[in-house]
Amino acid sequence: MTxxxxxxxxxxxxxxxxxxxxxxxxxxxxxxxxKNWHDDTVTISRDCPWLEDxxxxxxxxxxxxIPFQTxxxxxxxxxxxxxxxxxxxxxGRTPNPDILCNREIKFDIFLDTAMALGADYIATGHYSRIxxxxxxxxxxxxxxxxxxRNKDQxxxxxxxxxxxxxxxxxxxxxLTKPQVREIAREIGLPTADKKxxxxxxxxxxxxxxxxxxxxxxxxxxxxxEIPEDFPAYxxxxxxxxxxxxxxxxxxxxxxxxxxxxxxxxxxxxHNGAHYFTIGQRKGLHVGGTPAxxxxxxxxxxxNIIYTGQGNKHPGLYRKGLFxxxxxxxxxxxxxxLTIGQQMNVQARIRYRQALEPAVLHHEPEGLFVIFxxxxxxxxxxxxxxxxxEKELQGSGIID
Length: 399
Prior knowledge:
By secondary structure, this protein is an alpha/beta fold. The chain has helices at residues 13-24, 49-64, 74-90, 97-116, 162-166, 177-186, 208-212, 236-240, 250-254, and strands spanning 4-8, 28-35, 68-72, 121-123, 128-135, 138-145, 168-169, 221-225, 265-270, 293-299, 304-309, 317-324, 328-330, 342-348, 356-363, 366-376, 383-388, 391-397. The strands form three sheets. Strands 5, 6, 12, 13, 14, 15, 16, 17 and 18 form a nine-stranded antiparallel β-sheet that branches.
């Protein structure tokens, strides 16, 4: 019996080729476009991004000769993604809407919709792979990096469950981006040379401050510059010395320094600490410093931004991070650590970051992640994902 697959056609080349490959493999393919946003006033493009993408998805479906539908998911998208973003930014945290969109929209509501259409699977254009293995008389689904190292998108799928992976197909995961574009050109897909989408998942490129101003009002506050010779930094090399972890508490290694206005000097003003994130350089509008200023901490309670000069400033780096117990997610439940256990992993705290050696420490409070080398821009609200070589095993929200 022919298996049915509903492909999330985004209007881009990757999902277009995914649909083609599945049809070639003999699947009964249906194209479905998700409309997740109505408000175009905060997008940078003058054109309506979702309308253009929807038209491209329709043209692809016509070219491939597959049924096509559009589904409006703007209401749950606002509730689960946009409202969550506002809450996180309001509390000085930086969410990752793409990861949330995959967990809450594409592989949840969209998946349910596909199942209602009689589908056996859903498929997307993600550069990632799934491998099914048999263990203890159970099927286990491994989430693997895409073959194309420059396009690997496994990080964005780090919150998926075993059930979600069991219903997913990633047809372009075994290909490189140039190969995908070549296939699209060979068969004459209208999206063959279309640029990759940017910005928020299914919204497009937005003016983030204007986007946030819909609910988070501007508030004048101080920009404080912390000097490189801030006394607390003198202790960091001792704490971070390799092999010294046992002499320093996990909490000390993962807790960010706390700054106060008197620790530095005022160098400017901003319109709201909740508009900024750790590691940010643009938007400060402070000149006259020998090296560019970077945000090293935000205090949304007192509406203060703390900055440091240059991308080597000690305030930009952390030896470790902490994930609350409720925010730990294991894709491989069979590998889950019990309290008191440790695990050597490779981890990343942002998309396209090289994997970094780290040790997971599962304690009663949650998960402490200690890196071999201090990491730049550890940001609360973002996700850490840990791997064993090419397999993504779990993830968590950075506290």
